[in-house]
Task: inverse folding
């Protein structure tokens, strides 16, 4: 049997360093197969975060600009110049008292007397609105004559007011009727 020499034994010693230069680096690396780092680059991460932050700021700013009317021109030029807008001018048109009989269904008549004021928005004067008074009185007479006394009790006055307001808006359509005030309402 052949005995290996001492120099050969030491050369195959697993604890000794490799005598073959195979070009392999035995140090642990953090590279994948293509040689690129598996950890994201810090600079790239900062760029992505900065880009997302800028997008959020632009989006929030444009939303605010649209809501305030700066971007799409919804703001009036008076507000931009710093002047306050004056409230729209309204005219109160006094309607003479209307006396009508209600639809009672019995032999006993029931009468109602109603005095109102109508609020109209615009630059018209009360004198220019006087031609509309007979048409408005006709609306009151017609509706009151169709109404029963039971319909006016309780919340009926509010329904009466809303119905008359809707009918007046239709009748005087070019004018903008904003409200109707019942100043006197008597039932006999």
Result:
């Amino acid at each position: 049997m052949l005995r290996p020499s001492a120099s050969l034994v030491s050369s195959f010693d697993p604890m000794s360093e490799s005598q073959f230069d195979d070009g392999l680096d035995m140090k642990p690396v953090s590279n994948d197969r293509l040689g690129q780092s598996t950890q994201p680059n810090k600079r790239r991460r900062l760029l992505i975060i900065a880009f997302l932050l800028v997008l959020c700021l632009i989006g929030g700013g444009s939303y605010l600009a649209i809501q305030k009317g700066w971007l799409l021109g919804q703001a009036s030029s008076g507000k931009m110049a710093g002047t306050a807008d004056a409230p729209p001018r309204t005219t109160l048109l006094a309607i003479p008292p209307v006396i009508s009989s209600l639809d009672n269904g019995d032999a006993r008549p029931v009468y109602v007397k109603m005095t109102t004021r109508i609020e109209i928005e615009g630059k018209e004067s009360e004198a220019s609105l006087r031609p509309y008074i007979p048409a408005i009185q006709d609306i009151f007479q017609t509706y009151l004559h169709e109404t029963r006394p039971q319909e006016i009790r309780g919340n009926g006055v509010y329904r009466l007011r809303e119905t008359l307001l809707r009918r007046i808006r239709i009748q005087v359509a070019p004018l903008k009727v904003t409200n109707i005030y019942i100043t006197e309402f008597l039932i006999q």
